[in-house]
Write a structure and sequence with these properties.
By secondary structure, this protein is of the alpha+beta class. It has 17 helices and 15 strands. A hairpin with a 2-residue loop joins β9 and β10. α3 packs across α4.
Length: about 400
C-alpha cells in the first residue's frame, strides 16, 4: 500500500465512490423524486422501492429551526427552501452528485404552478441537472398495475384529489378535490382527545398540547376506520341521548416519555377518520367524489372506472378504509341523488404491489427505466433557451411532441 495514501487518508477516488457508488461501473441511473406536502420519497429508477421516505422539511442553517419546505411567503423563500431540501436529498440520502443527472419528478396535476416552476428553476439553474421529466402521479400510479383505465384517488396530507384515467389519459374535466385528508384527521383526533380523555389528562393536554408528530403517531398506530352501521349509530347517539351507542373499542394507553402517559378513549380511536366521510359545505366527501367523477365521464367508461379504483397516498393506508368506502358507495347508490343517474352494481379496489404511500413513486421509477423519459423530458439546454416546464394538460406541447415523434 502506498505510504501517501495511508498518511494523507483514503484515495480521492474513494470520496468519489461515496457520492457515485455503482455509477462508476454502470450508466447513471435516473433519480426519481416524489415531493409531497408531508413526506418525500426518493430513489432510483428501476428499483422496487424508494431509498428513503423522509418528512418534507429541513433545518434552517441560520436559526437551527426545522421548517417545512412548502411553508413560504415569497417565491424567493420557496426557492431557498427547495435549494436546502434538494441538497439533503442528493448528498445525505441518495449519495450522488446532481450535476448532469436525469431526474423524474412525480407531481400532482393540480399542484400550484409556482411550486413546479420554482422546483425546475432550482434543479436546472442551481444544481445543473441534465434533464427533468415531470409526470402526473395519478397516471403513473397505474404503471404498477398495467391497467390503462382506473379511478385514482390520492388521499394525502393536505387534500384528497381524484382524477379518472382513461386509456392512460387523465380526464381533467372530471377531477374532484376535497380539502380534507390526513391533516384534518389529526385535527379531529386532537379535538377528541381534549374532550374525551380523563379530566386530569385533559388539563395536561390544554397546558401542554401534544406535538403534531405525537398526534400523527397516535393516528397511525391506534386509530382505524369503523363500519358504516357503527358510525351511524354513534352519530345518532350524539344527537339523540335516547339512542344507545355501540360498545366502544378498548382504550389505548399511549406513553409520552418518562412516567407520563395518556389514555386514548376507544371512541376517539373510532371517530378520528369520520371527518373524511362527513359532508362539507359543498355536500362532498371522499365517497361522493368517486360518484361525481364517474358521472362526469363518458357513459361507456363508467363501469370500467367503478371496477378499477386505486387508492394512493399515506392517509389511504388507514385500517378499514377500503371496506368503509365500499359500504359508503353502495349506500349512496340508492339515494335520490344517484339512483337514476348511475346504473352501477359493484365497486372494485385494486391492491397495488406497493404500500399506498409510495405507489406513485414506484410508477415514476418504472417510467424512468423506459424510453418514455427521453420523449417527455426537458433538457437543460432547452430550459436555458425558454425557462418553462410544459404541463401535461398543455395540448400545444402534447401535439408538438406527437408531431415530432411521428
Amino acid at each position: 500500500m502506498s505510504e501517501g495514501k495511508t498518511a494523507k487518508g483514503a484515495d480521492p477516488a474513494a470520496f468519489r465512490m461515496l457520492y457515485e457508488g455503482r455509477n462508476l461501473i454502470s450508466e447513471r441511473p435516473v433519480v426519481v423524486l416524489d415531493i409531497g406536502k408531508a413526506y418525500t420519497k426518493c430513489g432510483f429508477a428501476g428499483e422496487s422501492g424508494p431509498r428513503c421516505i423522509i418528512p418534507t422539511e429541513f433545518q434552517c442553517k441560520a436559526t437551527g429551526i426545522t421548517l417545512k419546505v412548502f411553508d413560504y411567503k415569497t417565491p424567493d423563500q420557496l426557492f431557498q427552501n427547495l435549494v436546502d431540501f434538494v441538497h439533503i436529498l442528493f448528498f445525505k440520502y441518495l449519495l450522488v452528485t446532481p450535476k448532469d443527472r436525469k431526474v423524474v419528478i412525480v407531481e400532482s396535476l393540480l399542484s400550484p404552478s409556482i411550486e413546479r416552476d420554482t422546483l425546475a428553476k432550482v434543479l436546472f439553474n442551481y444544481y445543473e441537472l441534465a434533464s427533468v421529466c415531470l409526470v402526473p402521479s395519478h397516471m403513473v400510479s397505474l404503471y404498477t398495475l398495467a391497467v390503462p383505465t382506473a379511478l385514482v384517488l390520492d388521499i394525502g396530507y393536505k387534500e384528497a384529489i381524484l382524477i379518472p384515467v382513461v386509456e392512460n389519459t387523465p380526464v381533467l374535466h372530471a377531477y374532484q378535490a376535497l380539502a380534507f385528508a390526513g391533516e384534518a384527521v389529526e385535527n379531529n383526533l386532537k379535538k377528541l382527545l381534549e374532550s374525551q380523555c380523563k379530566e386530569e389528562e385533559q388539563f395536561y393536554l390544554k397546558a401542554k398540547p401534544l406535538p403534531s408528530s405525537t398526534i400523527e403517531d397516535i393516528k397511525v398506530r391506534g386509530c382505524f376506520v369503523t363500519r358504516l352501521d357503527r358510525a351511524q349509530m354513534i352519530q345518532a347517539s350524539l344527537k339523540e341521548p335516547s339512542v344507545t351507542a355501540p360498545k366502544p373499542p378498548p382504550e389505548l394507553v399511549y406513553p409520552l416519555g418518562g412516567e407520563r402517559s395518556i389514555t386514548v378513549p376507544g371512541t376517539a380511536r373510532e371517530l378520528a377518520y369520520e371527518v373524511l366521510f362527513e359532508l362539507d359545505n359543498d355536500l362532498m366527501s371522499i365517497a361522493t367524489m368517486i360518484l361525481d367523477a364517474i358521472l362526469k365521464c363518458p357513459v361507456d367508461t363508467r363501469v370500467p372506472l367503478a371496477e378499477n379504483i386505486v387508492l394512493i397516498g399515506g392517509t389511504s393506508m388507514a385500517l378499514g378504509l377500503k371496506a368503509r368506502l365500499q359500504q359508503e358507495l353502495q349506500d349512496l347508490l340508492v339515494t335520490p341523488q344517484y339512483i337514476k343517474k348511475l346504473a352501477l352494481k359493484t365497486f372494485c379496489f385494486h391492491s397495488p404491489p406497493a404500500k399506498e404511500n409510495y405507489v406513485a413513486w414506484l410508477g415514476g421509477a418504472i417510467m424512468g427505466a423506459t424510453n418514455s423519459i427521453v420523449k417527455r423530458s426537458v433538457l437543460k439546454e432547452d430550459y436555458q433557451k425558454l425557462p418553462k416546464i410544459p404541463d401535461w394538460a398543455d395540448l400545444s406541447f402534447n401535439c408538438q411532441d406527437s408531431t415530432k415523434r411521428g
